[in-house]
Amino acid sequence: MSARGFQPPAYPYERLNEARKLASRHEGGSIDCSIGTPCDPPLEAVIETLGSSKSERGYPTSAGSPVLREAVSRWFQRRFAVEVNPEELAACVGTKEFVASTAGYLALRNPDRDVVLFPDVSYPTYEMSATLAGLTPVRVPLERGRLCLETIEPDHARRAVMLWSNSPSNPTGYLDDLDAVATWGRAHDVPVFSDECYCEFTWSRDPETMLSRGLDGVVAVHSLSKRSNLAGLRVGFYAGDPELVGYLRSVRQHAGLMVPGPAQAAGAIALDDDEHVVLQRRRYRHRLELMATALNEAGMPCDLPEGGFYLWVRVPEQFDDAWAMTNVLADVAGLIVSPGEFYGPSAADHIRIAVVQPDELIERAATRLKSYQVQ
């Protein structure tokens, strides 16, 4: 494209170079808690299946193999007591790809609509999905993680191609009111897409899915990246309204979007096992508590999240801004974190810490913080 056309912005995490330099000076190196990349081992059976499925020779099915889709269906029934027909769900190549592309596909289906609604403080790809599709991104204000649906302008509702909900939220850890969101979407004829990738790490209540409110007009989006430490396999899936799922299955097949066969086979193994998720919940809960305690003792108050494995920390008034706090944490503790502005302009007074490093590194960061006190 010409210089006047679309120019991708700097990728947010590439802006942390100064913090990385400060953190790298520590003996033992930096502790990168800026990106939610799992570090813990996946199931051994998953690794074995990757090399033994014999599915690498032919093209995989775009919608997902029957084995994978049936495993997803069983998981919905076992986890949420929700029945989803395997024919009414499909695989995606990791959920980031799905988030980034779906708005454009829905706009092709309904060209009279040109607005993407998404949480004001949220994963940057919701906004980018609208930009990439030539649509208008519209932020919906939040109150303790709940979408303030009453603030959506009637014209934006009329023009909305979709509404995103994210519960538990990345980055805030709050839980949305899924009943209210589903009800609003149906009342305004706006498809609701519920990003539930962190649902297995819900702390304040049982995990929830939008599909418990019925399938009409809603689609739930899930991933094995966080649940099963399989971010490298790129196995996600979506389920819900049969018409929406059927449309997306078809258009994605034309686009050639396919999860590799061995990854699908391995994903089915992971979905049928719940014990490793119980273990992973314990790991993240321990790390959250350890890091939160260290921050509070250092004069950086924070609460445990309602869900997810992020600490969402308000910047104390003693710091000029989130970037200053980011650099202090890098300098003092070797800890690399994300300034809140990565997740929206109104989040500039927070930082996000992903407790995705091994226990010994989280403990090391906590120990280093003991030498510091906010003045």
Walk me through what this model shows.
- It is a single chain.
- This protein is of the alpha/beta class.
- The chain has helices at 17-24, 44-50, 66-80, 95-109, 124-132, 154-159, 178-188, 224-227, 242-254, 261-271, 275-297, 322-333, 359-369; strands spanning 31-32, 89-92, 115-119, 136-140, 142-143, 146-147, 160-166, 192-195, 218-223, 236-240, 310-314, 335-336, 338-339, 350-354.
- It has 2 domains: 12-41 and 276-369, Aspartate Aminotransferase, domain 1 (Alpha-Beta Complex); 44-271, Type I PLP-dependent aspartate aminotransferase-like (Major domain) (Aspartate Aminotransferase, domain 2, 3-Layer(aba) Sandwich), CATH 3.40.640.
- It has 13 helices and 14 strands.
- The strands form 4 sheets. It has a 7-stranded mixed β-sheet, with helices on both faces.
- The longest helix has 23 residues, at 275-297.
- The termini are far apart.
- The relative contact order is 0.18.
Please give the domain count.
2
Give the strand line-up of the largest sheet.
2-10-9-8-7-3-4
- Mean model confidence by pLDDT: 96
Broad structural category: alpha/beta
Task: Please give the count of helices.
Answer: 13
Poorly predicted ranges:
none
Number of beta strands: 14
- Give the SSE string: HEHHEHEHEEEHEHEEHEHHHEHEEEH
